[in-house]
Amino acid sequence: MAKGGKIRIGISGWTYAPWRGAFYPEGLAHKRELNYAAERFSSIEINGTFYRLQRPESFTRWAENTPDDFVFAVKAPRYITHMRRLKNIEKPVANFLASGVLKLGPKLGPILWQFPARMKFDPGTFEAFLALLPRNTEDAAALARHHDRRLKGRNWTKTDAKRPLRHAVEVRSDSFCTPEFIKLLRRYKVALVCADTVEWPRLMDITSDFVYCRLHGSEELYASGYGDKDLRNWARRVKAWARGSEPADATRVVKASKPRKTGRDVFVYFDNDMKVRAPVDAASLANRVGIAPKSRRSFKT
């Protein structure tokens, strides 16, 4: 039997006004919201990095305010994926990596590259992008040193240890539903995000040694919650991936790969935050797969 991979289930972002008084207790200081969420989930996506470059001290603070066994997924800047659309991105990628990402140390999990629905699959463009991505933290630090002068005095280009660096790609156009794209991801060992939504393709092709899922809402984008049946189905899929196999109902572009002798790590993030469903659904799914969080106050407050 394959040794199971690590399952992490969490939320996408943690700073949402409607959550205050619902998920977060009344009166909880805003600066304590990450602490509170990190006690309940083993991983969270950092969304702020998508909208603007952060500073090294922010990453340091986030690392300090989470437990030792906590992991962040980091969302790459939309400037690279949505505005530049992967054109002339060497400096922007270096700037992103130099903004303090490596300050997370062992808490740095997968980097998420999300592409807009209007972004179509172009084999040459995507292969050049995948080839640019660093595969470990030493390579990331080396690339970060090529940042431009905008980061002068606010950069971090060191790593405390050489660690593997994981990347995941979320696509929202049917033009990516082609074996050529799947083969390309497998060649570079980049995960294809399984995005559950009513608007974009939901693909479950395995392209790396880990699985990355984003659950955006079962019926209404970013808003609707997941019922018992939906959560049972997702729990079954997550367990199959963690064992190294694949769920029987997986939707793929290519045929299923052979089961692994070792399991896969699985990351699942709920992004249905508009109606305060994300924390509830994430906690419910964590219970169903047997990873209900314990009290974990081994961090600064």
UniProtKB/TrEMBL annotation:
- Spell out the PANTHER family in the cross-references: DUF72 DOMAIN-CONTAINING PROTEIN (PTHR30348:SF4), UNCHARACTERIZED PROTEIN YECE (PTHR30348)
Q: What protein name applies here?
A: DUF72 domain-containing protein
InterPro entries from the xrefs? DUF72, UPF0759_sf
The species this protein was found in? Parvibaculum lavamentivorans (strain DS-1 / DSM 13023 / NCIMB 13966)
Q: Could you list the residue ranges that cross the membrane?
A: none
